[in-house]
Design goal:
With about 300 residues, this protein is α+β, with helices and mostly antiparallel strands. The chain has 6 helices and 12 strands. The structure holds uric acid (URC).
Amino acid sequence: MPTILGQNQYGKAENRVVRIVRDGGTHHIKDLNVSIALSGDMGEVHHSGSNANVLPTDTTKNTVYAFAKEFGIESAEQFGIHLARHFVTSQEAIHRARIRIEEYAWERIPASRKASRSGGAEKAGHSFVRKGQETRLAQITYDGNDWQIISGLTDLTVLNSTNSEFWGYLKDKYTTLEEAYDRILATDVSARWRHNWTSDAQPVPNWEKSYARTKRHLLEAFAETYSLSLQQTLYQMGSRVIDSRSEIDEIRFSLPNNHHFLVDLEPLGLKNDNEVYFAADRPYGLIEATVLRDGAEAGIPVDLTNL
Ligand SMILES: O=c1[nH]c(=O)c2[nH]c(=O)[nH]c2[nH]1
C-alpha cells in the first residue's frame, strides 16, 4: 500500500535554561523551559534515512544555551524570536520553527529585620524564592516571512469570596443544583493571547511590559466583576485585555470552575453561615472561550492543553 508522509516536526523538547546576570551584588535570574520544533525538507530522513537535511536535536539544545550566553534572555518572546529566526535563516532545509517557552518566575527573598538594621539591603541580591503564582508561556512561530507570537499563562489561581451568583439556569428532571446568590468563585486561569506583531517591519512590542500589564488587567477584571456566571467573568476579563492592550487582537481562556460547596454542619449541631466550604478538586465545570478584537480572525487553537 502506498503511503505518504504527513505533517512532521522535530527538535529538542524541554531545554531547561537558567540565565543569571550579575550586576555587582545584585543578580537577576531568568528560568525557562524551551521546546524547539522544526520542519522543512524532511522527506528524505523519513523515507531513506538520509540525515543530510537534519540539524541534530542536540545542536538545537546547544543553541538554546549558547544564545542564553550570547544574547541573554530579555523576555521569553524575544529569546524565542532569536531562536526561530536563527533556525529558519541559517539552514536552507528548515522552513518553519516553532519555539514554546514556559517561564518560572523568581522573587527576591526579603532580608531579615536584623540584617537590614545592621546596614544590609532590604532584599537579598542573590537569594530567590520561586513565585508560587502562574507559569508564563510563549509560543513563537516563524516561516521566514510571518511571525505569530502567542503569549499566555497557566495556573494563575484566583478566588472571589463574594460578588458571585449563579441562578436562572435551565432546569430539567436531573437538575439538583440550588440557585446561589452569594457563592465563592474560584478558578485557575489558563489564557493565551495573540499579538498583532507579525512582521519585522512593525515596531517590536515591549514583551515584558505587555505581559505584566495583561496579567494585571486579567486580575483586576476578575476582582472587579460582579459575576452572574464564570462565563460572564471570562468575557469581562477578555474584553478588558482587548480594550486596554492595542498589541493584542485575541485572547482564549480555559477556566475550571473550582467548586466550593458549603458543608452541612447541622448534624454536628453547628450553623454554617457561608463560612465553611468543601473545596472539591473534581469534577469541575470547564468554561472556555475566545474574545476577539472586532474584525480580527481567530488564530489560537481551541484546545489549549498542548499550547
Ligand atoms: O458560573 C457557572 N457557570 C455554569 O455554567 C455553571 N454550571 C454549574 O453547575 N455551575 C455553574 N457556574
